[in-house]
Structure formats: C-alpha cells, structure tokens
Amino acid sequence: MGLNRVAAVFRNGHTAFMPYVMLGFPDPLVCRRVIEQLADSGADLFELGMPFSDPLADGPVIQAAAQRALENGITLADCIAMVAEMRAHGFSTPAVLMSYVNPILAYGLERFAADSVAAGVDGFIVPDLPPEEAGDLEAICQQYGLALAYLLAPNSPPERIALVATHAQGFIYLVSVTGVTGARDALPPTLPEFVARVRAATDKPLALGFGIKSGEQARAVRHLVDGVIVGSALVELAGRSVEQMTYLAREIHFALHTPEMLG
Amino acid sequence: MTSVNKTSRGRFGPYGGQFVPETLMAPLRELEQAYSAARADPDFISELDHLLTTYVGRPTPLSCAARLSAHLGGARIYLKREDLAHSGAHKINNTLGQALLARRMGKRRIIAETGAGQHGVATATACALLGLECVIYMGSVDMERQRPNVARMRLLGAEVRAVHNGSCTLKDAINEAIRDWVTNVQDTYYLLGSALGPHPYPTIVRDFQCVIGRETRAQIIAAEGRLPDMLIACVGGGSNAIGMFHPFIEDRAVQMIGVEAGGESITSGRHAARFADPQRGRVGVLHGTLSFVLQTSDGQIMQTHSISAGLDYPAVGPEHALLRDLGRVEYTYATDEEALAAFHLLARLEGILPALESAHAVAEAIKRAPLLGREALIVVNLSGRGDKDLDTVMQRSALSHAGYS
Asked: How many helices (H) and strands (E) does chain B have?
C-alpha cells in the first residue's frame, strides 16, 4: 500500500506505463470503463486527476476535461469515493491522485490524506505545490505512508533538482518541456541532457510527462526514464471513443514493455 | 483553517507565498534577484522617476472636492487624481517600473492580463514607449464591456488575445497569461498588474504603486498642514489601495478603508467581495498566492460579478489579507448601484467621470463623510477615469432611470 506500492512499480524491470485519467470525465460511468480498459492494457501506475476550475498548468484538452467533470458535479469527495469503490471491486493497480492545491486545502490536508488512504490511494501529485510550500502535506504523507511526487522542469537549476531529490517520495515527475500539458509532435532534443542532470543528483525513479502521445515517442524515451506519463492524448480519446483510447494505450504499453528486438 | 507551510518566501503573515508549477520557480527567483538589484541601482530609480515626471505627469494632483463635501455635509473630501495619470489610471506607475525591469533583464516580449483594460492599456503604453513586444490576455466578456480599451491597446501596437475559458473575465485572463509564461519563459516577462500572484509580484507592484501614498502624504500636509483622518480606496486585486495605504501604515491615527465590489448584493452571491462574504470568501490559493478566495465548499473558484471589470476577481492581494487580520485596514463593500450613484454624483458635483472601480471608493466616502465632523479630512484614491465605462453607465442608467436630474 501507499509509498511502498508506488516504489515497487519502478522495481519490476521495465519502464512503467503511467496513464492519466480525469476522474468524472466524460462522465462517471464511462470514466470507470476508461480506468478498467487502461488497467487491462497494462497500466503500471495511474495518475487520477481531480478536476479544478482553474488548472493553470494544463493545456486545452485537460482544461476541457476538468470543466466537463465539474459540470458533471464531480467533487473531491466523489473522486476519493470512486477509487474506494473500484478498489472494493478488484481494481489493484497502484494509483496516485493529482490535484491542484486549493481543493485539497478546502477539504483539509489531514482529512484528505486519511480518506485517501482508506480509499486505497497510494500518493499525491500537486502541481502547484513546490517543496517550499508543501511542508505540512509532506509531514502528513509521511505519517500516512503516502507517496508525494514533485515535479522538475528543464529550467530547474541544480539547487532545485537537489531540493526535489531530497523531498520527493515515490518518484520525481519530469516535465519534458517548459509549457502546459498537452500532446506534442516532437520532444525537445535537450531531453537526454535534462534527464542526465537529474539522474546525477538522485537515484529516485524518474517519470517523464508532458507531450507524449504515441508508442513511437514512448519507445524513444523508454531507456532514459523509469516511467512514462501519458495524459492529454489518452484523455482526448477517452472523450471520443474508449476503444480508440484502449488501442493507443496498448500501443504505448507495447512500446514500453516489449524487449527491444521485438518492439 | 488548514495550514500549509508558512516559512516559505514572500509571506505576509500566513498569506502570500509561491504556489506555482515548478517551471515558474526559477524564473520567479530570477525576477526577485533582478528586482532587488534594480531597487538598489540609483540609475534605475532615476530613470523611472524621470519617466513618472516627464511622461506620466506625476505628481498627480490632490483635488479638494468642495462641492461634494458641502453636499454631504461632513468631512472635507480630497481626491487623489490617478485618473489624470497618463493612460487614465494608476496602472501606469507599475507598468513603467516593470517594463524597465524587463528591459534590464533582457526580456523583449511582455505579456499581461487585463480586466477593465486599464492595466492592458498601461502595459501597451509602456511597451510602445520602450520598444517592447506586447501581448495582452483579456476575457471575452471584458472585451465586450470595455471595448474602447481594446481599441486603445491595439492602436498602441499590442496584440490582444481573447480568452474564452471559464467566466471569460480577469481570472481566466491570468490563467492564460500564466500558461503563456510557462511556455515562453525564456524570452518573456510576465507583467502582472495587481498586488497579487506569487512572490515577488505582490511586493514589486506595491512598491511601484507606493508613489500614490507618498505624494498624497506630502500634498495633504501642504494643503492642510496635517495627515488625513481617513483614506479610502477600492480593492480588486488591491494595487491602488496598497499603494495609497502602505506609506501611512505606521501612522496609527490614519484610518484606512478598502472597498470591495458588492455586486448585486452579498447574499445573492453575485459579487466580488472576498472579505464581506465569510460563507464563500475563505483562505485558499489562486494564481500562486495564499489569500482570501471566493470559492465553493469543494474548493472550486467561484465566478464573480461586478459592474466594474477591474474589481471582478475572486481573490485579493495577500498583503490586504494580513492588514485585515491585523485590523489595520477596514474592508467593506459598495454595490453596483451604489457605485453607479457615486459615479453620477461625482460627475455632477465635481466635473469628474470616475472609473467604475474608483466609484466604489467614492460610494464609501459618500457614506462616511456625513458621519464625520467638518474638520475631518478624507482622501479618496480616484484610481482611474471613467471614459472606458460610458457604455456600461449609459445602459444601466437608461434601464434603471437612475438619473440625477
């Protein structure tokens, strides 16, 4: 459970497939199918997004999904309840909740952690809560044995890499480009150098996100990092066709898990 | 209140901080260092002062509102005439300062958000003056109600980008500006327009706006031989208010009143009064700073309402939250109707069309002056002029027959 279950994901010898799902999108029922299909497609660790009215780190796809989820009336309590219900029905893939900080503050940090643990959540990612601001949540996560991933960006200087390396629990989320979430046609050529700088500072697992939308791109980075996060590309398809989304998920999973000569 | 870490940079008591995506942490540090260096550089200060004098027209006058005072039958009211600053509002004090800072940092591309359009116009003005590229984000609802300012920004060479997300007002424009900044952080300077956002913005904006309070202090002493009894300013993000109040904070005898937008009414929920509505206005994080935020019980940011686009924002600058906790500033609100009535009264009695934002401060003076003796002195910060609001005022006045005939 919790941090241990997240850590185990990165010890099983292949690059982890980490799909992002916006909870409550396109509606609660379809969202459940989305999660089941992604789990069946070999997801190693879920990032379960909770909708926020002002997602300033997100591009248009996740913004629209969040807005739709909010229109569906999804609350933070609903998100936690959805995880609890799925856990009760056999959903066993490790999962972290991703939320902006304000809804968590409104819910109450301690209550949020306690309810999350009870529901079977393994950790958190809070994109607008850098380590400097996260002291209280960090202490609570430690108390409850939860992972707390921090982000690093290509423009993070050495002192910030060191700070995040010290504070991150579970894994470090590397943002591939300076920008908002969303699929991109090409990843920046400086990516290997960025990953190498972080590697030199920590032995914690590194997951790469922002911009990855295809098996081809996933294959290109699988040797660089310990996990690959795919968000907008899957969310966009989830809103249109769960079948097409599943197809993409399998393609990415194949690219990450299959030995080189076959992949 | 659930707490977060209170030891981070840029705190005003428990408020403020840097609640931003990682990509912005290094640029904010760079900004903080560049600003500290600029503040200590006499050449930077003298260049800004020179522009404020020869370009903005500072010091702006402190006008005695004799007919308004006589009409109300109480305190003598003075108006700090930021409406007479070049480009029509106090916003230029900050945009010139920050545009000079951007140039000093080697950033040639400026982005900004705007609500009423005053900050956008002031940013476009500073960019034209200094030869910088300028992109302004503005909610589509605000573009509709502040059309003259959209035209002004474009004539000044700025690109105005419409924001169609969320409530299509100021908060959504800030979201888009931050997304642009995260994406183009290498060459782009985000010129934030109010005393909010992540550290160091609340401090930078306050410092550049303090010229209002410093001048007021000297001017009222010259006119009356003493400090005023009361200062009144409207509070959206809170930059004109903090600029007026800050130089008087140690003067305990000077009472200070910040006026939020009461919209249709507090009970209706259609307002932008963060402090006046304890049910919806609670401590939270919006746009990188911890302060009072209008939000649902589930922590979603609420859509606000005000007749004045510049006050139509769900959070308040973090230093105001501290000043409120300390009891140093009293915060109240004026409704749309009260602001409109104040607009008309000031026009008829003083020959001044105030911005609807500033009309909220005038409305509070209208309530307070009769309660004070004739020897009392009130200074109202008339933060901007009302030309941009003529459409709104004419429509509303026709609808409500609220003429002062």
From this structure: 15, 14
Q: Does the domain made of A2-256 have the CATH classification 3.20.20.70?
A: yes
- B312/B260 Cα distance (integer angstroms): 9
d(CA B22, CA B27): 10
CB pairs A-B closer than 8 Å:
138
Q: What is the pLDDT of residue B7?
A: 52
CA neighbor of B330 nearest in space, from B246, B231, B197: B231
> Which two three-digit tokens encode residue B186?
């290498």
Please, what is the angle between helix A76-88 and helix A28-40, to 10°? Answer: 50
pLDDT in tens, B141-188: 999 888 899 999 999 999 999 999 888 889 999 999 999 999 999 999
User: Which residues does residue B94 pair with via DSSP β-bridges, in sequence order?
Assistant: none
A97 within 8 A of A74, measured Cβ to Cβ: no
Q: What's the pLDDT at B2?
A: 38
Which residues in B67-191 belong to E strands, given as ranges?
A: 76-81, 109-114, 133-139, 159-163, 188-190
- List the structure tokens of B403: 């003429």
The pLDDT of residue B113 is 97
Is A133 within 8 Å of B17 when comparing Cβ atoms? yes
Q: Using 50, 70 and 90 to split pLDDT, how confident is the model at B398?
A: confident
Query: Residue B8: its pLDDT value, please?
Result: 64
Question: Does the complex come out with an ipTM higher than 0.90?
Answer: yes
Domain boundaries, chain A: 2-256
Tell me which DSSP letter residue B159 carries. Answer: E
Q: What is the largest CA-CA distance in chain A?
A: 50
Name every chain B residue with its beta carbon within 8 A of the beta carbon of A75. 298
Measure CB to CB from residue A178 to each of B8, B182, B295 and give the nearest one.
B182
